[in-house]
Design goal:
Blueprint: H1 4-12, H2 30-52, H3 70-102, H4 107-118, E1 132-134, H5 166-191, H6 197-223, E2 226-228, E3 230-231, E4 236-237, E5 245-246, H7 247-269, H8 286-319, E6 322-323
Antiparallel strand pairs: 1-2, 3-6, 4-5
Helix pairs in contact: 2-8, 3-4, 3-5, 4-5, 4-8, 5-6, 5-7, 6-7, 7-8
């Protein structure tokens, strides 16, 4: 009697020969991220153009009787000046100087530019509800939230989104912490060459958590530049106060910083200096690689900020019921 295995072997002899199939061309994450980056850039152009051409492009009106103390107003202006200086330093050392020396952008430069473009997404914080309060004394031209996708009909459309200290936050909490973390991580790895990556990133997360927690709380308490209007109370410190602070803000910002740090660290360890974002560049024609790389990094910035920060922040804020007791200059018009 013929065994089952023998019948199976015999049956394959009647099948037609199948030629060798060439491997599929793989573009890695680069093409996917570049597509997202291109779509996001086009959306930013449309949103900003509609905002600038509308009656929303004007400083947000000041409402209510409350006036800022003089010392707070001075502190706010100092914070704006410091933020502007920090941004200019990043642009010089990460964008302008490397381009002048090598003729091309570095990964740090792309992170800086990507962070600035992704600042348009900042208005997503209030796309459904006033979760993040802005001081009407901020140097501003209103806000573009009305022209973003998913804007709710009951959501605010007039408040003072900062054009001075807002964009730098998308630079130093992303590219900035990655540069600093990688610098110190090299020292740690030289000192303890067998340290695991998990241990290393736990330390990086703690550093970035503390950096955000300290900076944001100092800014909120001294300048009233912004406040967390509505938060999830079980994860909120000083709930109900004007300076209430959701601890998940620092957790999410630290996670964002860790993702940027990981990409930068991977690029440093790669023999050609390529991060996982750029893993599929070899499959593109040389004349297109620069553009593909730029949009891929922009797509990475947007995906990271959207899924690691904005979506969880909005979800926790929308289900939260801790409302800050804010002066009128922190309320929307």
């Amino acid at each position: 009697m013929t065994s089952v295995n023998e019948r199976c072997v015999d049956d394959t002899s009647v099948l037609p020969a199948v030629p060798d199939v060439p491997p599929l061309q793989r573009r890695g994450s680069t093409t996917f991220l570049a597509s997202i980056g291109l779509v996001w850039f086009a959306l930013c152009v449309v949103v900003v153009a509609r905002w600038v051409g509308s009656d929303q492009f004007t400083p947000a009106p000041k409402i209510g009787p409350d006036e800022m103390e003089t010392w707070r107003l001075i502190a706010l202006r100092v914070f704006e000046v410091i933020s502007l200086i920090v941004l200019l330093l990043f642009l010089w050392y990460s964008v302008i100087k490397p381009v002048r020396q090598t003729g091309r952008l570095s990964l740090d430069g792309r992170f800086v530019i990507g962070g600035l473009i992704c600042f348009v997404a900042d208005a997503f914080l209030n796309v459904q509800k006033y979760l993040f309060a802005w001081n009407s004394e901020n140097i501003n031209m209103g806000v573009w939230v009305k022209f973003l996708p998913f804007h709710g009909s009951d959501a605010p459309t007039q408040y003072a989104e900062s054009l001075i200290w807002g964009p730098p936050m998308y630079v130093y909490f992303c590219a900035g912490v990655a540069i600093v973390a990688c610098y110190h991580a090299k020292k740690v790895r030289r000192r303890w060459p067998y340290i695991s990556k998990v241990t290393l990133f736990v330390g990086i997360f703690v550093f970035e958590f503390l950096f955000d927690f300290i900076v944001e709380n100092v800014v909120i308490r001294t300048t009233h530049a912004y406040a967390f209007a509505n938060t999830y109370e079980p994860l909120t410190l000083w709930a109900g106060e004007v300076h209430q602070f959701p601890i998940y803000e620092s957790i999410l910002v630290a996670f964002v910083g860790c993702v940027f740090t990981w990409m930068r660290m991977e690029a440093e360890d790669h023999p050609e200096g390529l991060s996982p974002i750029e893993s599929g560049l070899v499959h593109w024609r040389p004349e297109l690689r620069g553009w593909v790389r730029n949009f891929a990094v922009l797509g990475f910035c947007m995906v990271t900020l959207c899924f690691v920060y904005h979506l969880p922040f909005n979800w926790l804020g929308l289900i939260g019921d801790s409302v800050a007791d804010m002066p009128s200059y922190l309320l929307p018009a």
